[in-house]
Amino acid sequence: MRRKVKNTKRTHGTQARASGAVPSNQTNPIPQTNIPTTHVGHTVPPTVSDRYTPVPVPTPYRRIFNNMTWFPDCLQSCDTIMRVALICGFVTSTLAVGYATTLQQLSLDDMTRKSTAIVRGTVQLTHGAMHRGNIYTHYTVQVVEQWKGAPARQLDFVLPGGTANGLQQAVPGAPALVNGQEYVLFLWTSGSGLTHVIGMSQGVFVSANGLVTRGAIQESMLNSNGSSVSDPGMQMTLPAMRSRVATVLNGGSSH
């Protein structure tokens, strides 16, 4: 009977670790199960997204977060990261079940009010860099027209994901920009000094032939009530968008 009780407790602990729960008699949540090796020198759980290139994981925290270059100080910066995520209109899931992006639906009026700068101009990729354990791709935009924010001939901004220090990271929902293409961008500068695009792909419009266009977004999206919604994309003339943004900034509404 004693052996059966011990086996039962051991099985319960294994199930708790598999489900992500921490047994009441265990303070260390790091899983101890055998993890198959898929890259030489690296251990990768079967559910890890192929969007990440595994790296050596000398600290236990990286094992918890799917080897996605999370550092121990991430526990101190999580609050800041979440504030940036909520302002930019996206929430990311980075636990062992995979990596996904859920977007908060933002209207044109929402993005106009939340942004710190709205510009039209030509973009150019400059470099990738690591910021607080996450990779960002840096771009510059040569400003042709500015609808909000302090006047500037050039602005620097970032998109999540990219390549830096020999590592590659992909983020679902992040827009793919074309060098030399003209865009209308809704931007927001965080307290860290990094300038982001509002709402991921929602804040990027291709500007061509007098039209501004944003294709339909395929990622999961929630409205202000928390209900799942689909995004049909958006297209309007450049003068119509310029007028709509000006109306909102002057305290009016286009709805």
Q: Assembly state here?
A: single chain
State the order of secondary-structure elements, H for helix, E for strand: HHHEEHEEEEEEEEEEEEH
Distance between the ends:
71 Å
- CATH fold category name of the domain at 105-249: OB fold (Dihydrolipoamide Acetyltransferase, E2P)
CATH architecture of the domain at 105-249: Beta Barrel
Shape: globular
What is the CATH domain class of the domain at 105-249?
Mainly Beta
Major sheet, described briefly?
Answer: 8 strands, antiparallel
The share of residues in extended strands comes to: 25-35%
Number of helical runs? 5
Beta strand count: 14
What are the low-pLDDT stretches, counting only 5+ consecutive residues below 50? 5-24, 30-87, 90-98
The pLDDT mean sits at 74
Helix content: 10-25%
Q: Strand pairing plus helix content: what structural class? A: alpha+beta
Radius of gyration: 22 Å
Verbal overview:
- The structure is a single chain.
- 22% of the residues lie in helices and 32% in strands.
- It is α+β, with helices and mostly antiparallel strands and 255 residues long.
- Mean pLDDT is 74; it is low at 5-24, 30-87 and 90-98.
